[in-house]
Amino acid sequence: MRRTRLTARLAAATPAIAVAIAGASVALRPPVPPARTAGAEPVLQTFALAEPGMRLVAARSPVVPRTAELARRATAPFSLVGVTWADPRSAPQGAIEVRTRHLTTGAWSSWQLLETDNPDASAGGPGVRGSSDPLWVGPSDGVQARVIAPGGDELPAGLRVDLINPDARETAPIPVKRPAPAMRPAAEVNNAGEVPVVLPVRPVPRLVTRTGWGADESIVKEPPEYTGSVHIVFVHHTASGNGYDCADSASIVRGIERFHVKSKGWNDIGYNFLVDKCGRIFEGRGGGVHRSVLGAHTLGFNANASAVAVIGDYRSAPIPAAARASVAQLAAYKLGAWSNPPLGKVGLVSGGSDRYPAGQTALLNRIAGHRDTGRTECPGNALYAQLPAIRTTAGAAPAGLRYRGVNGATAYGGKYYTRSAAGPAWDLSTPTRMMDRFEVWADGRLSAAAPSGHRQAAVRLEPGEHKVTVRAVHLSGKIAETSTAVVVDPVAPEFSEPPLVALREGTVGVSVPVRVGWTATDTSGLKSVRVRGAASENLSGGTRQYAGTARLGDPATWAVTATDRAGNVASAAVTRTPVLLTEAEATRTGTWRAMRDQGLLGGEALAASAAGASLTWTFTGSSAAVVAGRTAASGRVRIYVDEEFQGIVDLRSADAGNGRAVWARSWRTSGTHTVRVQAEGTTGRPSVVLDGLVYLR
């Protein structure tokens, strides 16, 4: 809309105006190159728009626009151009346009409109001038400018074109000492004698410092001023054009600094921060990015405020996602430092602006656009429409916080078990740049803290169960929490007795079937058990016995290792030797007949059919098993241990076979025992076959 109106005004003004200087047409004046000295290119060049001898020639139109023009001319190199005038409280009522000549190609640009609706933000002062917004044009060596005030309105006095070369250096830079970031105080803890937890320093957004972009500290004559808490962050655009490469951003910032100081008469660059379209953040006005530095950016509202300007013109084009993220980060950083919510509103008393007279209270979003306090297009319609999304990002709580685990601990049943130190580890979806820090609380007590880029910490806990909470703190001050139970168990499992090895039923051959049993207790519960003997086996923590085999005649050691859920380990072992007593070594009563077969132990066994026939073995050991044959026609036997009746064993089985351990008994300690096996003389199937006795020594 603005460009359309300008075109119409120019079309109407052109035939009615002629500009003459000393009788010669300005348009025909040959370019006059300035004096050039190698290595001494000026930072600032100024050319008056109301040069001596210029006069306005009346036209046929009854209302003659007031016009001033700088004829096309050659200049020393520059990259940024603006127009200034004497009184910062006034502004041209018409349009200011410039065109420039490219330094390399020599081509002249089209006419470009300078934005002039931004009121002076410095509140005036000696030497302060009114100005347009500067325009970045890239390396250039020629300029032409024109100002048209329609309807015969007066033009501001002292109009001039200011050209800035951001890469020229008039003096060597003066090193400036910046205040170190403020340390947080140590957090309070409840238990006397404990080392207090020191919170990490609040992270400063990653940015290009004044030294990094080449600020000319020699032109900053006054020290920075400071105000109170930052209650609001104003968002601006520089209106300097979007046709720049991000590699030029530092030069643009240098140009803006020099334009603000040398052309506008300010003490330093006005903005506290600048952000380019690639999202790079630049430190603006000096004094410390973590402090409340008084800037010159928003007339009537500079106190208790901070400002970020996005480099470019965003009246119609929105800022890219990277720049939007950086603006949100800066706003959260500045507001959150003073516990002011980025999503909130604040009432501020105006110091005097063209929208709010001095003393009037303005209710503003804490992240506001320049236009909210002044009659200006800044920060442009497109960027202004993005402010709600920027507020949401800046004021959000951490999202997606979740436990990833606890280093050095084992998860079981929704809890984590550890022997001593615990290392909570977490993830979240909020970008690191938006985070302040992480805190780890144990049972409501701050136990550790970690910087925003960390995702784990270490805490030491007393034995027992604890509630461990990870608290994520956003730059805005909002928090999110996630908790888990951590059990600290420094005590190893306990075996109340050595493992018990016992013979069991099964086939006897070169090896005999055995069972290893144990009793292990632990306060936090067993995670796993490993049994090593003739073979090794890893078992679950709930297992209390293991079935295996042992070779006849060979000593065998069974070691049981128990590991609890915290990782503590305990072991116990026992050694036993399986021994075979054949039927020939038994004391006999009644009638027995010999049997010979390769399937029998030693190739021989004894069979009986008469009731009361018995075989008795005496041994010293901790377990015994009767070995017999099984057929579909086998009868039953009665078993006595130390002459006490133990029960009846039926040897009938559809699964016929010899060398079967059909009954077993074990004792906790080794002792001398007798085992007597007596044929029952079962009706219809009285025959039984006994093949010996196996015991553990």
Structure in words:
By secondary structure, the protein is mainly beta. The chain starts with a helix and ends with a strand. Strands 29, 37, 38, 39, 40, 41, 42, 43, 44 and 45 form a ten-stranded antiparallel β-sheet that branches. Strands 3, 5, 6, 7, 8, 9 and 10 form a seven-stranded antiparallel β-sheet that branches. It has a six-stranded mixed β-sheet with strand order 19-20-26-25-22-23. The radius of gyration is 47 Å and the shape is rod-shaped.
What is the compact description of this entry?
Pfam families: Amidase_2 (PF01510). This protein is mainly beta. The protein has 5 helices and 45 strands.
What distinguishing features does this structure have?
697 residues, ten-stranded antiparallel sheet, rod-shaped, Peptidoglycan recognition protein, mainly beta, seven-stranded antiparallel sheet
Helix content: under 10%
Contiguous low-pLDDT stretches (5 residues minimum) are 1-39, 51-61, 172-183, 185-192
The secondary-structure class comes to: mainly beta
C-alpha Rg, in Å? 47 Å
Number of strands: 45
Categorize the overall geometry. Answer: rod-shaped
Give the helix tally: 5
Sketch the major β-sheet: 10 strands, antiparallel
Q: Tell me the fraction of residues in β-strands, as a range.
A: 35-45%
How would you state the average pLDDT, rounded? 88
* Euclidean distance between termini CA atoms: 106 Å
